[in-house]
Specification:
By secondary structure, this protein is of the alpha+beta class. Helices cover about 35% and strands about 30% of the residues. It is rod-shaped and about 130 Å long. The relative contact order is 0.06.
Length: about 425
């Protein structure tokens, strides 16, 4: 059986009032203040008479009262006299401070009580929280950059990033809109929401929105600037009505610029609080939007290259012109697959062979002169000549030569031949 601590008497009144930190005595049974010192009166803003009409619940934020009740219940049965705990306290002006509570069990008029000293640690605790939050943001930036670097699809990278952003910034909704410049509209493409907030991704009013419909929000974005607002403070505009319809109380939107044009934007909503956005919020988002702009630009260039390659491949394989690459001695290095369609001869049959092996003997001398000329020229059109096909027939062809011998990728002379 635990031995109960020996209850200490309360200090004399003059020592109590001379203490440099706020002190009070409250009864464990009903939480009521029964004695406060002058430092508590100065720090918390209540008069002595007001304090004595209050309970210790009255200096706590409402959401912290369950934690207080648990602490008091534990005090009633603890075996040690002394206890230190960190709490949030609320002053008369409703401002919040972080205090270290140092308490001893005592008695007041025969009732079990605690004598409490409250040491204000707000500045040091706030600095600690700020450093921890900054570190958390840096970790999130690193994680988001990894998503962007590893994914070949920027939409997949964004989707992976949104949950990280939402939880780090403690917002209710993160979303991405993309601009259709041809139609001059914007549509929502992606969204992440916290568990207790309704999604808007299927909201038809957020699809194909004309860029002229919400100038208050979109005009700054077009100029590469962010948009932030406490929705209740916005002027009465279509923008405000749309945001209120989505239960948004605070909003921050940053543009995604690709080659100096607005490609899209990323937005964050707080649906519970009128959040004031801080510098770290902007740092996290600007890192994402800047890097995303580069990723999208690279993706577009890659897509354009693939499209160009596909068009060239289609042209080479299906066109009537025969494309080939020869070296300065007329040895075939590459022949397009449509050689079988044009001449009836598979492309592989030409590789490593000399073009003059297939050219009519009487036409070869002038063509050899032309080949010598192209070494010092960019391009040259050959006079018509005869070329043997798969059935030993002589076909009249005409060829354009293009000098790419200095190009490390091609390293030869491109021939474009047609009948």
């Amino acid at each position: 059986m635990n031995r109960l601590p020996e209850i200490q008497p309360a200090p004399p009144a003059d020592i109590f009032d001379l203490a440099p930190f706020p002190m009070w005595i409250y009864t464990l049974e009903d939480y009521r203040f029964v004695k406060v010192n002058k430092a508590a009166i100065r720090e918390y803003g209540y008069s002595e008479q007001e304090f004595l009409s209050m309970t210790i619940k009255d200096i706590r934020p409402q959401e912290d009262i369950p934690k207080l009740v648990t602490a008091v219940e534990q005090a009633k049965c603890r075996t040690e006299l002394y206890k230190e705990t960190l709490f949030r306290h609320q002053k008369r002006d409703a401002s919040i401070m972080f205090v270290q509570i140092r308490s001893n069990l005592t008695s007041h008029q025969g009732k079990a009580a605690e004598i409490v000293t409250a040491i204000d640690l707000t500045d040091s605790y706030s600095q600690k929280l700020k450093l921890e939050k900054h570190q958390k943001y840096l970790i999130a930036i690193g994680a988001i950059n990894q998503f962007l670097l590893k994914s070949e699809n920027y939409l997949e990278a964004l989707s992976s990033s949104f949950e990280e952003m939402g939880k780090t910034l403690q917002v209710d909704r993160v979303y991405y809109f993309e601009i259709n410049h041809e139609m001059q509209t914007t549509s929502q493409r992606l969204e992440w929401t916290s568990t207790d907030v309704s999604q808007q991704i299927d909201n038809p009013e957020l699809q194909e929105i004309p860029l002229t419909e919400f100038p208050l929000l979109l005009e700054p974005l077009k100029k590469g600037r962010h948009f932030q607002a406490i929705v209740s403070q916005l002027p009465c505009t279509p923008t405000k009505k749309s945001l209120q319809a989505q239960d948004i109380r605070s909003i921050l939107v940053l543009p995604i610029m690709v080659e100096d044009d607005l490609f899209g934007f990323i937005g964050l909503d707080d649906c519970k609080n009128e959040k004031e956005w801080i510098a770290d919020d902007f740092q996290l988002l600007e890192t994402l939007t800047s890097n995303l702009g580069h990723v999208i630009s690279a993706a577009r260039a890659h897509s354009d290259l693939k499209d160009s390659e596909a068009r060239f491949k289609s042209l080479v394989q299906n066109g009537n012109d025969l494309i080939a690459i020869i070296d300065e001695n007329a040895i075939y290095k590459y022949v397009a697959p449509n050689s079988e369609k044009v001449l009836g001869i598979p492309a592989a049959h030409f590789l490593g062979k000399n073009a003059f092996d297939f050219i009519f003997e009487d036409d070869a001398p002038s063509l050899k002169e032309n080949l010598a000329q192209i070494i010092t020229q960019d391009s040259l059109v050959l006079a018509p000549y005869r070329f043997k096909d798969s059935e030993e027939n002589w076909r009249w062809l005409q060829t354009e030569l293009s000098n790419h011998l200095a190009d490390p990728v091609i390293g030869g002379i491109i021939t474009n031949t047609r009948e």
